[in-house]
Design a protein that fits this description.
This protein is an alpha/beta fold and 422 residues long. The protein contains twelve helices and 22 strands. The chain folds into two domains: 157 residues, Lyase, Ornithine Decarboxylase, Chain A, domain 1 (Beta Barrel); 252 residues, TIM Barrel (Alpha-Beta Barrel). The strands form four sheets. Strands 4, 15, 16, 17, 18, 19, 20, 21 and 22 form a nine-stranded mixed β-sheet that branches. An eight-stranded parallel β-barrel has the order 5-6-7-8-9-11-13-14, surrounded by five helices. The longest helix is centred in the middle third of the chain and has 22 residues. Bound molecules: pyridoxal-5'-phosphate. The site of pyridoxal-5'-phosphate has 18 residues, from helix 10. The site of pyridoxal-5'-phosphate (PLP) has 18 residues, from helix 10.
């Protein structure tokens, strides 16, 4: 993003042109920024541990155009559901390029997960006998709850520790791998996902050490070796201006240092090191463009836009902060206002107080930052408000990569029984 003569550009395309061409609300992704984010992180981790690979957690942004950028850069796919395995297949990825980390799976999920031949990552020890009913995978990985989790984007997004629904309890880890070994499984992996949006490099070292102690002990006591160890996602981005960036080089060097130290301590065959971020790659490369449609002066001034809780769920869902720019007005003095969307819920009053340009007016275009991850993917149709369009920009080129929904999308899959049609 860039501001030139007061006008906001995404790569080299003015937001006014994007809004005119595609309407609002519209998600826009910067291709070159996604690539730069990925390359920065990959080169850092590979520098300190060459046998390293990223799997992109496609749940954060499942547009196939976006996912193909990351595939081209060399990422595998982390799939949270069978349908995400199928999405990966649409990218031409399967087998060892895809990791299936579903949780609380149905028998049908298990059957399809096994049949797909991707890496199967079990969220609980109780899944093992259920998986074995359908077949014996060559390799099994367990998602470990290391007993500690952290989130910089609110407690709702803490994915490990005592209050999380995910992963194998730390005291059950040994038993889980023992059961798998005794069932004749020969190859193993390990996984965790303890942190969300973490910008402190020391945290990654801390959590790697915990996992490696659990896994190292299992390797030593059970005489098994690990093909890979996946540290999950959680590489953070700053949402608030003034917050620091994650020092990715430092995170990579600290992780590699403790990883290699623990490999030596437990005399492990060095496994491949993996991570499966999403936010770090696509979060700050995505924006949502909206239009100011109404302004109300009530207990305070409220700016009404078409960026609603159904379009961008994070603020209403867990109080997430997103910076907002107003095109053409960034140089103006500020005034404290509120800002909301158009959904009939007061949680859609998603900015209660913010210093925005004082002249903000009807027809202005707002640009909401850091919307590339968990943005469109979490959008929904409440109030008959439809999902927005998605656009990709690269230099001065732009492409529609998902059409805006229309009324047909609202009634798709609905049938009205004959007696109700009279
Ligand atoms: C299992 C798993 N892996 C990876 C991710 C990606 O996390 P992030 O976007 O914080 O990197 C998530 C996100 O919730 C997840 O649940």
């Amino acid at each position: 993003m860039d501001i030139r003569n007061g006008q906001i550009y995404l790569e080299d395309v003015p937001v006014t042109l994007l809004a005119q061409t595609y309407g609002t609300p519209t998600y826009v992704y910067e291709e070159n920024r996604i690539r730069a984010n990925f390359r920065r992180a990959l080169s850092a981790f590979k520098k300190y541990y060459p046998n390293f690979r990223f799997f992109y957690a496609i749940k954060a942004n499942n547009n196939l155009a976006v996912a193909n950028i990351l595939r081209q850069e060399g990422a595998g796919i982390d799939a949270a559901s069978v349908n995400e395995i199928l999405l990966a297949q649409k990218l031409g990825l399967g087998g060892d390029d895809v990791m299936f980390s579903g949780n609380f799976l149905s028998d049908e999920d298990i059957r399809q997960g096994l049949e797909s031949g991707v890496i199967f990552n079990l969220d609980d020890i109780s899944l093992l006998p259920r998986v074995l009913k359908y077949g014996k995978p060559e390799r099994i990985s367990f998602r470990v709850n290391p007993g500690y989790g952290k989130s910089d984007v609110g407690d709702f997004v803490t994915n490990a520790g005592p209050d999380a629904k995910f992963g194998v309890h730390p005291e059950q880890v040994m038993n889980a791998y023992r059961m798998a070994r005794d069932a004749g499984i020969k190859r193993f992996g390990a996984h965790m996902m303890p942190g969300s949006c973490i910008r402190d490099p020391e945290y990654f070292k801390f959590i790697t050490e915990i996992l490696m102690d659990l896994i190292g002990r299992a390797a030593a006591e059970l005489g098994i070796s690990f093909d890979f160890i996946d540290l999950g996602g959680g590489l953070g981005i700053p949402y608030r201006h003034g917050d620091s960036y994650l020092d990715i080089d430092k995170a990579a060097s600290l992780v590699a240092e403790v990883f290699t130290k623990k490999i030596a301590e437990y005399k492990m065959t060095p496994p491949r090191l993996m991570m499966e971020p999403a936010r770090y790659f696509v979060g700050d490369a995505g924006y949502i463009l909206g239009t100011v449609h109404a302004i109300k002066d009530s207990y305070r001034r409220i700016i009404g836009t078409d960026v609603s809780m159904n379009t961008l769920a994070r603020p209403a869902m867990y109080g997430a902060y997103h910076h907002i720019y107003v095109n053409g007005r960034e140089d103006e003095p500020r005034r404290t206002v509120g800002l909301c969307g158009q959904v009939c819920e007061n949680t859609d009053f998603w900015v209660r107080e913010r210093e925005l340009p004082q002249g903000i007016d009807l027809g202005d275009i707002i640009v909401v930052e850091n919307a590339g991850a968990y943005g469109y993917a979490m959008s929904y149709q409440y109030n008959g408000r439809l999902r927005p369009a998605e656009v990709l920009v690269n230099g001065n080129q732009h492409w529609l990569i998902r059409q805006r929904e229309n009324i047909e999308d609202l009634v798709r899959n609905v049938t009205v029984p004959a007696h109700l049609q009279k």
